[in-house]
């Protein structure tokens, strides 16, 4: 459920804690990009998950993602959480758009 570094924080229900990738500061051609022209980072790695949501009849529905997977996030949304002086974001399992298969 939670990564080794997150024993002090565990998302509840169908929540997922992600760490977004760093924004690209240099273009492919080597040009430094100003902050305004950097695109919003929509790729992240799962660092912790909750146990899952409950269905209408009370059964726990398993999460669709696991710790360590690389996922695609919506452009907007998520709740910013600061842990160990780093920024993370909480999303619902159903808000994640997809996961990358390696």
From TrEMBL:
Keywords: Chaperone, Stress response. One of its GO terms (cellular component) is mitochondrial matrix. SMART domains: Cpn10. SUPFAM superfamilies: GroES-like (SSF50129). Pfam families: Cpn10 (PF00166). PROSITE patterns: CHAPERONINS_CPN10 (PS00681). Belongs to the GroES chaperonin family. Homoheptamer arranged in a ring structure. 2 heptameric Hsp10 rings interact with a Hsp60 tetradecamer in the structure of a back-to-back double heptameric ring to form the symmetrical football complex. This is 10 kDa heat shock protein, mitochondrial. It comes from Callorhinchus milii (Ghost shark).
């Amino acid at each position: 459920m939670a990564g080794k570094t997150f024993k002090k924080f565990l998302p509840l229900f169908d929540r997922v804690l992600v760490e977004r990738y760093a924004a690209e500061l240099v273009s492919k051609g080597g040009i430094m990009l100003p902050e305004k022209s950097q695109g919003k980072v929509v790729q992240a790695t799962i660092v912790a998950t909750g146990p899952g949501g409950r269905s209408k009849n009370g059964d726990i529905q398993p999460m669709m993602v696991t710790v360590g997977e690389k996922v695609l996030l919506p452009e907007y949304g998520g709740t910013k959480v600061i842990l160990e002086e780093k920024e993370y974001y909480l999303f619902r399992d159903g808000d994640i758009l997809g996961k990358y298969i390696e």
